Amino acid sequence: MGLIKKAVNKLSQLTAPVFNMRLHKAEQFYYRQYWHTMQQYMPDRASILDIGCQHGRFTIPMLEAGYNVTATDIKQKFLNDIKAHAPASALLTLRKEKLETTIANKSKETYDIILCFELLYLFPNYEKLIGRLKKMLNPGGKLMISHRSKGYYTYRFQAEGDSTSAMNILDNNHAHYNAQTTDELSKMYASLGMELHTLKGIGVLSGFDKDPFRTIANPARMKTPQLEKLFALETSEHTQHNFINSARYILAIAQNNS
Fold this sequence. Notes:
- This protein is of the alpha/beta class.
- Helices cover 41% and strands 20% of the residues.
- It has 11 helices and 7 strands.
- The longest helix is centred in the first third of the chain and has 14 residues, at 2-15.
- The radius of gyration is 18 Å and the shape is globular.
């Protein structure tokens, strides 16, 4: 049964329409939440590496703001789409490559900002990879990385009737995904010798698709006035303090002072 389920999931992935995070209404809403926190840590004329850029949800706004951006992804069609929509005068480098390739082959390149959003939860050796990314930063450069929260997966798996996976997430023992609490992230970045500027929840009370809180609030189905109220609620300090460990993602911004 496990093999059949995997085959069905693989077929679904191959036949499903390509999900465009840059144009999807809910993802645009979550981009605003990322940028709400990121903007105060973005120096002028920074060099940026955007790993796993997909259709350019972050790459294109960064280019429009005048940043020098190197964007990587494993799919050429994503890079082609970015090139088609990038400003004509953009300082843009596109590379088709895996995260491991970026780290292994480009170790002599350094950047002011490295973005790695909604990707590292797929890698069991995420801490080691973050340590390698740190080495690609200029002195004073910043990593901006999103992590899955343990609450997110606990609610999601339990809603799917999969208590075993929920327990494995809590025990740091899931076969395919990893997730952390804010305490665990704080300790990890400290162990890597990085100054942690902030941890912010992205999508603290809302979601779409398989997200557990999609029945509470789904940005893809909301009109502008509702979205503005949800944005204010989710980014408020009270909501962040009380619910960050159940967010869709936890955004970590950490600085390399070595």
